[in-house]
Amino acid sequence: MNTTPQEYLLPGGAISINALPKIALHDHLDGGLRPSTIIELADSIGFELPATDAASLGAWFADRANSGSLVEYLKTFDITTAVMQTHEGLVRVARDFIEDLAADGVIYGEIRWAPEQHLGRGLSLDQVVEAVQEGVDAGIESVAQNGSRIKIGQLLTAMRHADRGLEIAELAVRHRNNGVVGFDIAGAELGFPARNQRAAFDYLAQEFLPVTVHAGEADGLDSIRGALFDGRALRLGHGVRIAEDVTIQREDDASTFVTLGPIAQWVRDREITLELSPSSNLQTGAIAAWGDDLLDHPFDLLYQLGFRVTVNTDNRLMSNTTLTKELALLSDAFSYDVDDLEVFQLNAAAAAFLPLDDREELTDAIIAGFANA
Fold first, then answer.
1. Which is it for the CA torsion 63, 107, 231, 233, positive or negative?
2. Are 175 and 168 in contact, with CB atoms under 8 Å apart?
3. What φ, ψ does residue 274 adopt, rounded to 5°?
4. What's the number of domains the chain is made of?
5. C-alpha span between 45 and 48 (Å, rounded)
6. What tens digit of pLDDT does each residue of 132-143 get?
7. For position 213, which CATH number holds?
8. Where do the Adenosine deaminase domain residues begin and end (predicted)?
């Protein structure tokens, strides 16, 4: 198992955020490697790294990712994907990933990753999915042996700039009984609209496989519109720039009026989930229109207006974070208490790409876990 996570307490020190049950909906497999594992895997394939000890390598990732640009942020994945090109590497990374989620109190996680980026050493698309699922199963078993339980689903991702969307969609449907619960598109958002993958989305709709789409991160309302219209997205990956469709008017008498544009109205009223990732949104410049500090993040505005907000890590390695840490940062910034954190987890349970009965079990587990906090 990984090292013991840092403990975070809610104000007053009576409640450990670490101990609260959590759900992770937006967590990239190739963004959650342990630095120590990267070093071991790189050594086994002769791949040169920018640092050769775990602490220095972790710091390198965090520094490079803190660029204010999604494009620059994504370049760090050249290293992580390089060590995820073999069966052994994929199994190892997936197992570590599940163990680390469980150590952070996650009881259900959806891990997203792009199979097309892991074919460099001869594996097929089906083989890489099977390898990741083997690692997931091993991680679940390891967690069980340590007295805990965790449930995991795979989200298969197609890269926006490539032309393999339909192929990956078909792959996802082929493996829906082998751990895959949904589909995603990711990568450079600006200039690669969801409509480019329309054939994939049409196929998935016919097969009734749920979809989340990265949108409203490096591009604005048009990207979100495309995710909803072309992608039939049930969730928005990040979606933070939906706040561009929210108008706040302050009158001289200190009254405040908030008006939602048509896209924001639709997203709120249909409870389309926002997979918000606070630290990552700062690093990639997704909230640059509002500021460069967590206090400037539209998270609280969207929460107060009734959007279905969830809290996510995006890439734990690049952001040097955990789900517990993200919740602690938000609590410090916006004075959230345990009831607010429970709402975020209940939102995630409701949005999970699981059958209704399983989502209700997650809801019950969240309620029970918070009641015992």
1. negative
2. no
3. -100, 120
4. 1
5. 9
6. 999 999 999 999
7. 3.20.20.140
8. 21-367
Cα separations in angstroms, 37 against 193, 222, 336, 348: 35, 39, 35, 29
Domain presence at residue 367:
no
CB neighbours of 80 closer than 8 A, spacing ≥ 6?
Answer: 30, 31, 33, 38, 317
CB within 8 Å of 166: residues ≥ 6 apart: 197, 199, 200, 203
Tokens (6 digits) for 72: 């620059």
Domain of 268 in residue numbering reads as: 22-359
For 304-328, what is the HEC assignment?
Answer: HCCCCEEECCECCCCCCCCHHHHHH
Which one of the listed residues 116, 217, 326, 342 is annotated catalytic? Answer: 217
Q: In angstroms, rounded to a whole number, what is the distance separating the alpha carbons of residues 211 and 226?
A: 13
Interval 237-264: pLDDT, tens: 999 999 999 999 987 777 889 999 999 9
User: Which two tokens mark 373?
Assistant: 């906090």
134 as an active site residue: the answer is no
214: β partners: 237
CA dist., res. 241 & res. 276, Å (int): 10
